[in-house]
Amino acid sequence: MSMSATLQDCLRNKGSRYEILRHPYSHSSIETAAAAHIPGDRLAKTVLFEDEHGYLAAVLPSTYAVRLSELWSKTGRRLALAKEVDLRELFKDCEYGALPPPVCTAYGMQTYLDESLTHQPDVYFEAGDHEELVHMDADQFLALMDQAEHARFGRRMQGMSV
After folding, report:
1. With contact defined as beta carbons under 8 Å apart, do 29 and 62 qualify?
2. Where is the YbaK/aminoacyl-tRNA synthetase-associated domain (predicted)?
């Protein structure tokens, strides 16, 4: 499988400039950063949450974890991690088990972008499969994510280096 059709449409509609970086098959964002030889702070991962009101996406560096209390405070919602089985239905054009691309607003989902990603010179993110990353300059990434709300909800994980 290759890039998700939703992501392709989003990149085309925004006139985004980007490149595709292939990497060995990986199962996690930390593994992807290592396999692709890129800084983990520049690899955006998407974490999906749910509550009785629906789904919400949080986008942050692969070296960070979500501080759920901060996200609850920002959203006013008592969110829990979304179930893997639900993700299959939400992201039908993505490979099973792959991290969804960060443009979750294109999937009709409220999206929050951690402020730490706005300070990077460039950003990488999963294309909807296990072997391709999209790479773009920060200004292109921020334009792509223009419908996401910016907030501080991430913290660097113990033992994670830039």
Report:
1. yes
2. 23-142
Local confidence pLDDT in tens for the 162 residues of the chain: 589 999 999 999 999 999 999 999 888 888 999 999 999 999 999 999 999 999 999 999 999 999 999 999 999 999 999 988 888 888 999 988 888 899 999 999 999 999 999 999 999 999 999 899 999 999 999 999 999 999 999 999 986 655
Q: Would you say the pTM of this structure is higher than 0.90?
A: yes
